Amino acid sequence: ALYADNIVKAYVSFQDRPGATGGTSKVKGSFNVSSVTDNALGDFTITFAVPFANSNYAVASLGGFGADEGYCIKETGVAANTPTAFRVQCVDDAGAANDLDWASFIFVGQQ
User: Fold this and answer.
1) What does the angle CA 109 – CA 88 – CA 75 come to, to the nearest 5 degrees?
2) Model's pTM, two decimal places?
3) Residue 78 · residue 41 · CB < 8 Å
4) How far is residue 65's CA from residue 68's CA, in Å, rounded to a whole number?
5) d(Cα 56, Cα 93) in Å, to the nearest integer?
6) How far is CA 31 from CA 12, 34, 68, in A?
7) 35 strand-pairing partners
8) Strand boundaries in the chain, DSSP class E
9) Among the listed residues 65, 20, 14, 12, the one whose alpha carbon sits nearest the alpha carbon of residue 40
10) CA-to-CA distance for 45 and 37, rounded, in angstroms?
11) Distance between CA 100 and CA 16 in Å, rounded?
12) Are 30 and 89 in contact (CB under 8 A)?
């Protein structure tokens, strides 16, 4: 059954300039996301407009660049999830940190 706790609470699709760091990435579409910050090569922070109740929310993501595949992962060396933000590292198909042409995320959890 569909309940308030198990629906998508935030999503974002954004574009970045491969190889460029610093500043805010171009958000193409979003819900309940106030910003996407480019911290370093392949390192992004997604900030929620309305925070989650705790840091135990679920995340799904996709990403890519050019004809090659890429993906976004939650690395243990990156800051822990918080109710207000999610920090993630995106990598290329060789596993190296890299900015992707596009990335999309959905978030589900209690608010």
Assistant:
1) 100
2) 0.85
3) no
4) 6
5) 28
6) 7, 8, 28
7) 47
8) 8-15, 26-31, 33-40, 43-48, 58-65, 68-73, 85-92, 102-108
9) 20
10) 5
11) 6
12) no
User: Rounded distance, CA 106 to CA 104, Å?
Assistant: 7
User: What is the sign, positive or negative, of the torsion defined by CA atoms of 71, 77, 78, 83?
Assistant: positive
- How many residues can be counted in the chain? 111
Q: Are 111 and 8 in contact (CB under 8 A)?
A: no
Residue identified by tokens 């997604």 is 46
Per-residue pLDDT of the chain (111 residues; tens, 9 = 90+): 667 777 899 999 988 765 555 556 788 999 999 999 888 888 889 999 999 999 999 999 887 776 666 677 766 566 778 999 999 888 877 778 877 788 899 999 998
What whole-number distance in Å separates Cα of residue 81 and Cα of residue 89?
13
